[in-house]
């Protein structure tokens, strides 16, 4: 079964009946691995459309969860259930439950690294005191504002005022959360989340290939979200020093946010500073400071030392890129595309108004970046199928556009794979204004293809 | 991706009910089992289909039954009509399944499982109606239609579904403003299947409840039965479990009864 991936959560949704005979047919370790390759940092099985399950049925999933958690260090569990199902699962696994239960997908998202810092007001209740505390700590760490109810009566009273909270959490159980170093993109910065005691294990849990290729495709600012780090040893220090040295070759910056040095030797801090790492107290100190972002290289690609140029290998694959893009936009808009012009040069966007853009990087046998510039009208139409209705909510459109570009990236990966070219894709970026996009790619040479969808101009740009 | 023109092309390609089948069904409707068997004998493919059906272990015959008269006798009037409808539907199946991991045998198994369990359900509901018994035969048409429309777009659909949990029916409704179950109705009309059959199957999507209480109740049982079958390992592996959306709330009130009938 294929998972849907949203907000870093890989969601499997079996339907109907789950028992010991059929559960293994719904989910295999290969299904989970494919999902993890697509940057999921939490694996959940939705019980929303399951009308019957028994312990034998769930055991198959629980065994898989256990394997995956051990191997990949990610959060795993079930979601989308009612109180009856929650009670049944809690009873089945009353002696040992090392997975999580989230009443809904939305509640699970609050605990996802890809949905951090949304500042949601969350009402929390669990009859288990340690669970209440664990949820509150996690929610706080994930950038939300938890309000914990100590009694069921208090919960009933507070939850009756549904408009006071963005989310209400009950019938939820937090198992051991993920240990994988989660990755997300904010603006043009890549943020890694690290926690607990950092030791030699960091080299295993950090996706170095992803990091190197993010450097390759032009990311210049890497932030370690280290609020939850207790301390580190010499192995972790060496790891960060090496990382910083390799980043320097690309003129990239590595920052730490929220790292508390009370339990870390002073000499470590000095070594890190000598390696060029920077330290900030709050994430917003960086992300909300445009001047600083510019200085750190997150809003411009102009400071790239080794300006990479588009090469023959990548141009040879241009038809695959175009096919993937056109087929996806055609599929989403149910309209036909017409190719107008192809040119190798710096990107040229004649009309900047009413345009939004998105980019996605790819790396592997070949590497580069695809940029798509949409007329807002086409973007809205293309996203309609994913949203389920038409909307003018620009934040929602941009989020959905990122999903759509993810589909394009997936299709590129698959088409290149058919031709024996293996690539992986990065997380997509979106740009609400063309000026924002130009700040990043203005000086890059690439192949520009002008396309027409429903009499509207759509721009495709392939660069390195 | 999918256009109304493609749907029209698919419908245009559905052959009219072959003459032999028309006559067989008419004779079965008249209750003339012997003449119906003689007519059916002329269609060798139908004969092979019927023979392979009753010789499945499910029927438990020790020696092979190949005489159509005998087979119709075993199946009875309603069972025979149902089987001829199942055969008609199998004529629409692709030679090679692409979207779903099915083959002639597994699709045949699905048809048989649905028919046997539907019979059990109707016995529980105390319904003896030839048309209602045969209604189940139209249900798998939704699978054939999905295969026909989406098989060339398999990778596109997989990518789309990786970011949004859309079933084939929803995709079709959003793109073409028609549903798989609407297309099933069109097939039924083309094959002169009764209005009652069409209404039950249309409502069994769980998205368009019928105002007729009996039809709606039957549609609920049919919807739940479909997902009971699509939860079997063979059909989960075939990729059928989530080809349409299971409407859990729609069937909630009959679930306890269903569990008893199916010995869950």
Class derived from helix and strand content of chain B:
mainly alpha
CATH C-level category of chain B: Mainly Alpha
- Structural class by helix and strand composition of chain A: alpha/beta
Q: What Rg of chain B is obtained from the alpha carbons, in whole angstroms?
A: 18 Å
Write the element-wise H/E pattern of chain B from the N-terminal end onward.
HHHHHHHHHHHHHHHH
Describe the structure.
The complex is a heterodimer of chains A (464) and B (264). In chain A, the strands form 5 sheets. In chain A, strands 16, 17, 18, 19, 20, 21 and 22 form a 7-stranded antiparallel sheet that branches. The longest helix of chain A has 25 residues, at 394-418. The two termini of chain A are 35 Å apart. Chain A folds into 3 domains: 4-169, STAS domain (Transcription Regulator spoIIAA), CATH 3.30.750; 182-296, Transcription Regulator spoIIAA; 312-463, Chemotaxis protein chec. With 464 residues, chain A is α/β, with parallel strands linked by helices. Chain A has helices at residues 23-26, 29-37, 55-72, 83-92, 105-110, 129-141, 152-159, 202-205, 208-216, 234-249, 266-274, 283-287, 290-296, 312-316, 318-333, 376-387, 394-418, 434-441; strands at residues 4-6, 9-12, 16-18, 42-46, 50-53, 75-79, 100-102, 121-124, 145-148, 167-169, 182-186, 189-198, 221-232, 253-257, 278-280, 337-346, 355-364, 368-375, 423-425, 429-431, 445-453, 456-463. Chain A is globular and about 65 Å long. Helix content of chain A is 40%, strand content 27%. Chain A is built from 18 helices and 22 strands. Chain B is mostly helical and 264 residues long. Chain B has one domain (4-261): Orthogonal Bundle (Hypothetical protein af1432). Chain B is 66% helix and 0% strand. Chain B has helices at residues 4-13, 19-29, 33-41, 44-54, 68-90, 104-124, 130-135, 141-150, 154-163, 168-176, 180-190, 195-203, 213-230, 233-237, 248-251, 255-261. In chain B, helix 6 crosses helix 13 and helix 12 crosses helix 13. The longest helix of chain B is centred in the first third of the chain and has 23 residues, at 68-90. The mean pLDDT of chain B is 89. Chains A and B meet through strand 1, strand 3, helix 1, strand 5 and helix 15 of A and helix 9, helix 10, helix 13 and helix 14 of B.
């Amino acid at each position: 079964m294929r998972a849907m991936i949203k907000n870093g959560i890989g969601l499997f949704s079996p339907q109907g009946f789950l028992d010991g005979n059929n559960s293994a047919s719904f989910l295999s370790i290969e299904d989970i691995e494919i999902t993890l390759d697509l940057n999921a940092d939490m694996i959940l099985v939705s019980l929303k459309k399951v009308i019957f399950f028994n312990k034998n049925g769930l055991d198959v999933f629980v065994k898989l969860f256990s394997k995956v958690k051990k191997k990949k260090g990610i959060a795993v569990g079930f979601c989308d259930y009612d109180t009856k199902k929650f009670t049944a699962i809690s009873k089945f696994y009353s002696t040992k439950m090392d997975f999580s239960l989230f009443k809904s997908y939305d509640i699970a998202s609050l605990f996802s690294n890809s949905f951090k810092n949304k500042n949601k007001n969350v009402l929390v209740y669990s009859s288990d005191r340690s669970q209440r505390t664990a949820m509150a700590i996690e929610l706080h760490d994930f950038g939300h504002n938890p309000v914990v109810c100590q009694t069921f009566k208090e919960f009933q009273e507070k939850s009756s005022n549904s408009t006071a909270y963005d989310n209400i959490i009950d019938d939820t159980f937090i198992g051991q959360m993920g240990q994988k170093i989660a990755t997300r993109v904010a603006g043009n910065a890549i943020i890694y989340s690290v926690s607990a005691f950092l030791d030699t294990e960091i080299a295993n849990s950090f996706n170095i290939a992803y990091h190197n290729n993010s450097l390759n495709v032009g990311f210049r600012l890497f932030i370690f979200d280290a609020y939850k780090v207790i301390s580190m040893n010499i192995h972790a220090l060496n790891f960060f020093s090496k990382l910083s040295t390799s980043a320097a070759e690309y003129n990239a910056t590595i920052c730490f946010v929220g790292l508390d040095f009370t339990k870390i030797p002073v000499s470590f801090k000095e070594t890190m500073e000598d390696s060029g790492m920077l330290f900030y107290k709050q994430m917003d100190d960086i992300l909300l400071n445009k001047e600083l972002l510019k200085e750190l290289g997150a809003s411009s690609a102009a400071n790239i030392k080794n300006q990479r140029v588009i090469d023959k290998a990548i141009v040879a694959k241009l038809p695959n890129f175009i096919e993937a893009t056109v087929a996806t936009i055609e599929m989403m808009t149910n309209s036909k595309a017409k190719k107008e012009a192809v040119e190798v040069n710096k990107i040229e966007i004649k009309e900047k108004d009413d345009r939004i853009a998105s980019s996605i990087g790819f790396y592997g046998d070949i590497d580069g970046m695809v940029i798509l510039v949409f007329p807002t009208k086409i973007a809205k139409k293309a996203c309609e199928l994913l949203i389920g209705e038409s909307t003018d909510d620009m934040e929602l459109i941009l989020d959905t556009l990122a999903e759509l570009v993810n589909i394009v990236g997936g299709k590129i990966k698959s088409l290149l794979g058919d031709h024996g070219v293996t690539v992986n894709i990065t997380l997509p970026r979106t740009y609400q204004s063309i000026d924002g996009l130009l700040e990043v790619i203005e000086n890059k040479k690439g192949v520009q293809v002008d396309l027409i969808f429903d009499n509207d101009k759509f721009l495709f740009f392939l660069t390195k | 991706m999918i256009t109304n023109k493609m749907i029209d092309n698919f419908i245009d390609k559905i052959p009219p009910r072959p003459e032999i089948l028309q006559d067989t069904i008419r004779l079965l409707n008249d209750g003339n089992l012997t003449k119906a068997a003689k007519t059916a004998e002329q269609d060798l493919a139908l004969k092979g289909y019927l023979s392979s059906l009753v010789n499945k272990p499910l029927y438990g015959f020790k020696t092979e039954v190949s005489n159509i008269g005998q087979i119709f006798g075993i199946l009875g009037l309603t069972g025979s009509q149902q089987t001829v409808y199942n055969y008609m539907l199998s004529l629409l199946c692709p030679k090679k399944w692409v979207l779903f991991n099915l083959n002639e045998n597994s699709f045949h198994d699905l048809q048989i499982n649905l028919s046997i369990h539907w019979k059990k359900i109707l016995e529980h509901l105390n319904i003896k109606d030839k048309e209602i018994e045969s209604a189940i035969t139209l249900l798998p048409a939704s699978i054939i239609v999905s295969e026909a429309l989406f098989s060339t777009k398999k990778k596109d659909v997989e990518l789309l579904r990786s970011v949004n949990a859309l079933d084939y029916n929803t995709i079709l409704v959003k793109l073409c403003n028609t549903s798989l179950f609407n297309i099933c109705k069109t097939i039924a009309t083309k094959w002169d299947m009764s209005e009652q059959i069409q209404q039950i199957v249309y409502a069994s999507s769980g998205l368009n409840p019928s105002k007729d209480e009996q039809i709606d109740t039957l549609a609920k049982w049919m919807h739940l039965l479909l997902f009971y079958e699509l939860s079997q390992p063979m059909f989960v592996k075939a990729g059928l479990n989530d080809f349409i959306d299971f409407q859990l709330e729609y069937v909630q009130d009959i679930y306890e009864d269903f569990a008893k009938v199916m010995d869950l």
